[in-house]
What we know:
Elements: E1 14-19, E2 25-29, E3 35-37, H1 47-58, H2 63-70, H3 74-87, H4 94-101
Amino acid sequence: MNGLKCPQCGGVYIVKNGHAHTGKQRYLCRVCTFQFTLNHARPPISAEQVQLVDRLLSERISHRGICRVVGVSRTWFRHHLQSLVQTVPHRIDPQEVVSSKR
């Protein structure tokens, strides 16, 4: 049709789907309903930025403040927090706590 392919499924039935807040054209794949923008310019988050975010979290700085200082989006920050929560054990065995104090 218009020469575009879906980056998700490779489908060719692509239609225009409004504009992003940056003014770029958005597209919708009618096969898998994936929405995308061509040539988006979002740089990846470096490992140094992730370490800085983790260090600032331990300093009890506000979440919005961390996003402003490091230059990450609040959406990325929320996903990063969710991944951190999944790595932390949520259950503490009382026997382990007692034995470690002795």
